[in-house]
Amino acid sequence: MTGAPQWQDAVARGLDAAIADYRRDNPGSARYRETAADVLPGGGTRSSYHFAPFPLVLACGSGDRVSDVDGRTRLDLNANFGVSVHGHGFAPIVEAVRAQSERGFCFAAPNPLEAELARRICERVPSIELLRFTSSGTEAVMAALSVARAFTGRRRVAKLHGGYHGSSDFGTANGPGSAPDLGSNSARAAAVPADILPLSVDEPDRLVASLREAADDLAAVVVEPVQGAAGLIQVPPELLARIRSVTQELGILLIFDEVMMFRMHRGGVQSMLGLRPDLTVLGKLIGGGLPVGAFGGRADIMGLFDPFREGAIRLAGTYNGNPMTMAAGIACLDALEEADFTRMDHLAQALAGAGNAVLARRVVPASIVAAGGFFCLHALPRPARSHAQLLQQDQALHRLLHLGLINEGVLVTPTGMGVVSTRTGPAEVDEFGAALERVLARYLRPAQA
């Protein structure tokens, strides 16, 4: 049915209408983009928040609500790609940042809050014995790769197709939105640098064989156990266990990138799976809304950064361990109890269930997957099980659903991902379901015939 010309025409008409409504309702955001483009490429500084015809420009937020420059308030299920686990304006974080700002913004010296936040993270994540802070997840991944290469004496690094590991050449190679490039003789093979070994979750036996073949020069395998930017794709636990086993056997370091998905569980996804990587990369949540990154793991590996050690790896960073961020991170983690993770997981599952019921009732070939407080819209009859599968989704329908939800007062990311917070409740779940119902009635009415 989804390939029928009538359906395609209906989706195209609906998308045109959604774009027209969006332009009409958000003149302030349009004007901002036009003027900001004089000094910012495209009018912004983050590719991840861009979407056509122009991104929504937000002015303020409180709880699960945000208001744009035109004064319209919406339900914020984007939450800065999951950063705002306590919503906006959370009083303990606001007070912690205010108090620290009066003591000092930053120093060229250690500050006591660094160790306080580090201890909280180490307590939550047993695989992290020592850690270091950076200013972003991108920097944390880059530093983790540096120490992996130094520790193993090897150069190449492997990653899964669809994995996003920050805005570096490694982080984006073969990442979200890319066609699988598994090092074949295709014309695209040159797009992946030679020191990166791309792997596919769709071919687990080939994946393991590739690790064995490249072992002599392979320093690490970097994995998002749940690929967030790629569409909330859960890497099969049995495959992760195989990767853990073969990397241990071959002396290859296993690095878990939990920058986005650390908020799925108190101890991260690795605690849910019962796996222990050699290194873990964190970010987003642990900064309480301020810029942050961190990486840590085995003491024998992280000890290479010890400046009292001869030949130590140098890792500088003006804002590493910034006391403002440390204060916010401590307040954020201290307010997160085990029950909060369970509750957010249940809410996201309920939201996905409500949304899927609406889609099924309206006979729309789209679906919603949920995991640990996150959910994601896939313009496919059933949720994709790999990023390669997700690339087959109906892009026009996906854009329609994304813009339609914004027009009906609900924000999700341009990839269709959303997240609940500790301040989300059943009323917000119902609000999402009602908004999706209105989107389909407003923009896909001809498809019902």
From TrEMBL:
What cofactor does its activity depend on?
A: pyridoxal 5'-phosphate
Q: Write down what this protein is called.
A: Aminotransferase class III-fold pyridoxal phosphate-dependent enzyme
Superkingdom of this protein's organism? Bacteria
| Entry keyword set | Aminotransferase, Pyridoxal phosphate, Transferase
Pfam families xrefs: Aminotran_3 (PF00202)
- What would be an example GO MF term here? transaminase activity
* PANTHER family tied to this protein: GLUTAMATE-1-SEMIALDEHYDE 2,1-AMINOMUTASE, GLUTAMATE-1-SEMIALDEHYDE 2,1-AMINOMUTASE 1, CHLOROPLASTIC-RELATED
* Organism in which the protein naturally occurs: Stappia indica
Q: Which family does it belong to?
A: Belongs to the class-III pyridoxal-phosphate-dependent aminotransferase family.
